[in-house]
Design brief:
Elements: H1 17-24, E1 29-33, E2 39-40, E3 55-59, E4 63-72, H2 78-81, E5 86-93, E6 98-103, E7 116-123, E8 129-135, H3 158-164
Parallel strand pairs: 6-8
Antiparallel strand pairs: 1-2, 1-3, 4-5, 4-7, 5-6, 7-8
The protein binds zinc ion.
Zinc ion is lined by residues 33, 35-36, 38, 47, 49-50, 52.
């Protein structure tokens, strides 16, 4: 047993497992219709667009943009309450489907509709990897809220660049 205190997708239908397997591999895959190319985040036996029963689990880019979001201040359990305030984002993926997940790596005040985000993978237990979005651009993160990173990039010691090119 893990001491992970938050929700895990245990007990989900077998038809959903390929998605969670893909998260463990850090390469999200989503069902895609073989006939019309529509991606569907929620697995289905028939394509809702063309009614084809042929589909393939297909790797996605991981890129998307915030469609809408909510800031959680009263969490469902004590484990989540320790994290408030946090952001749940409804994201339109580059492939056209939408997913809801937590948006990390940014302050709630910095989140904007249309903000570019990417999938991040969180290995929370040996069995489960969860998905969280993070800003696609580091510039979207408010540096002033992270005291350890208040130094502008150009003030970093020159030897950092020397090491990077030293091979
Ligand atoms: Zn289809």
């Amino acid at each position: 047993m893990s001491d992970y205190q938050k929700f895990l997708p245990e007990g989900i239908p077998d038809s959903h497992l390929p998605f969670w397997d893909s998260l463990r591999e850090h390469q999200a895959r989503v069902q895609r219709c073989d006939d019309c190319g529509t991606y569907r985040y929620i697995p289905k036996e028939l394509c809702p667009r063309c009614h084809s029963d042929r589909a393939t689990w297909t790797a996605v880019s991981g890129a998307g943009e915030v469609y809408t979001y909510t800031v959680v201040r009263r969490a469902p359990t004590p484990a989540y309450q320790a994290d408030v305030p946090y952001v749940l984002a409804h994201v339109t993926m580059a492939e056209g489907f939408r997913m809801i997940a937590r948006l990390t790596g940014t302050e709630p005040e910095a989140v904007r509709i249309g903000m570019p985000v990417v999938i991040g993978y969180e290995d929370v237990t040996p069995e489960w990897t969860l998905l969280a979005f993070r800003p696609a651009s580091p510039a979207a993160q408010p540096a002033q809220t992270q005291p350890a990173q208040t130094q502008p990039a150009q003030t970093q010691p020159a030897q950092t660049r020397g090491e990077a090119t030293g091979s």
